[in-house]
Amino acid sequence: MNIDRREFIKTGVVAGTLLTGAGTLITSCSGITRADLPLGHASNEAMAGLDKRHLAILKYASLAPSGHNIQPWLVKIIDANKWVIAADPARRLAAVDPNNREVMLSLGAFAENLSLAAGTFGIKAEMDIIAGSSLDQEIIEITLTESKSENYPLERITQRRTVKHGHLAKEIKKEDVMVLSHHLKGRLFYFPRGTKHAQCIEEGAIENYRIQANKVKAQQEMVKWVRLRDADAKKHRDGLTTASMEIQGFTGWFVRNFSKPEDFLKDNFRRKGVQLTEKLARQGGGWFIITSKGNTVADLIDTGRKFERLALLARERNIAIHPMTQYLEEKQGRQQIADNHDASIVPQFVLRVGYLSKYPDPVSLRRPVEWFVST
Ligand SMILES: Cc1cc2nc3c(=O)[nH]c(=O)nc-3n(C[C@H](O)[C@H](O)[C@H](O)COP(=O)(O)O)c2cc1C
Predict the structure, then answer these.
(1) What percent of the chain lies above the pLDDT cut of 90?
(2) I want to staple 64 with a disulfide (CB 3.0 to 4.6 A). Which of 110, 164, 221, 301 is the partner?
(3) Which residues contact 177 (CB under 8 A, 6 or more apart)?
């Protein structure tokens, strides 16, 4: 990493986990997780002229990450070989993401999984951006053509997840940073824990999380996506469960059974969230910042795609990725960045990273294919 890169972030900003709890994970006590709701159903049935390969490709695509696990994707099937990825207007985060920046990044991750999975089934998925604005609904047109099969390990997609706990205080090895930045030439910046810039990011991440924790609209919006009861999680198959928030062990059991999502608005819950974020933000191997050239739809989709490639490679290398997005959502955080950097630096992801002694199984829920596909 050269000096320019190190100079890149001069002051910190924010981010954060939601509320998480202490304690040991008791699997039988974790509430509904992805393993309880297999996604296989759709892939065994014909739908909208799609064959089994198409349905499997869409299933892999849906394993993409998204802020609060809103899963903002809709796929319109024009015909078996022409699809449109759209942003679902009912799945937005208007309070923290008014311009759909994060929705576009999530659709980019979805598109990347789709493209990788299609390749393994001998299908080339050509993508054209058809949106003029990130607030448009129809975003990417996909043309599918038969092609030679690619050899991509799909278990990277099924095993990837966001991991907040257990980041080891070990610097990310140079060779791992090199591999992870492969698809992000000149757009991935690593700040090892303990360096001045990592400390700035850490403080900024905590501070902006705290700012957002005190914003009623942002918290009310988050609460809408909290699924505490198993029945609620099963009904929606999206959003944040105790397992995906990593509220573990007895605390998780208690919250799942005796709390309501609205309790997250109470002062003591918010205070705990800030305390926990502060603790987590100080753990791990440092920070990755991913930048883009600009904020066009094409820039955001491309960055979401490349972020997903990075996350898939990180999974294989036992490296946890924890986005802490409040830094970029809060005006103060964005201002701090703008005040200290050239306008050509456009940060799109603030990621806490660290090696894990054991990479945990994915737990966040996904809607089955037939819920987000329309003809
Ligand atoms: C654009 C974007 C922003 C995100 N921001 C945060 C964040 O601020 N805090 C957090 O804990 N997770 C964040 N996440 C991770 C999501 O919560 C996570 O992807 C989702 O719950 C699904 O879980 P999975 O990644 O384990 O599949 C973000 C993900 C994306 C794609």
Answers:
(1) 83
(2) 110
(3) 1, 188, 190
